[in-house]
Write a sequence for this structure.
């Protein structure tokens, strides 16, 4: 069944974080119906043509939603990561913090704005825009 391993990941979380994970999974599935999803490096991740686009992870005190190319979305709520990658993320501690309109907009940008993480090893760590 599609998304079964992600559902298992979600169900393993505590009550409040489970709600957040379920909501994120639903919104990402709706916003990226063409994406492949799986547990990757122990976290739910969605891919377009083999390129990681969006995923979430349970941190000590929150659930972090991360967009691999999010630093270029021009979205104030998404905080850029550190280092040479173009990721950006937002952290949630309550399901009511998830603003569906924002998430839908970010998913739309994720389809259009992509850095080629899939081939980063072939390019010896050099990141290029898709």
């Amino acid at each position: 069944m599609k998304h079964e391993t992600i559902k298992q990941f979600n169900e393993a979380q505590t009550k409040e974080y489970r709600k957040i994970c379920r909501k994120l999974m639903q919104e990402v599935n709706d916003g990226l119906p063409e994406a492949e999803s799986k547990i990757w490096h122990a976290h739910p991740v969605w891919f377009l043509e083999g390129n990681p686009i969006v995923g979430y992870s349970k941190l000590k005190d929150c659930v972090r939603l991360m967009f691999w190319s999010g630093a270029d979305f021009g979205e104030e709520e998404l905080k850029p990561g550190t280092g040479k990658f173009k990721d950006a993320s937002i952290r949630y501690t309550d399901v009511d913090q998830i603003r569906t309109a924002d998430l839908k907009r970010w998913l739309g940008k994720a389809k259009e704005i992509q850095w080629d993480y899939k081939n980063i090893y072939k390019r010896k760590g050099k990141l290029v825009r898709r």
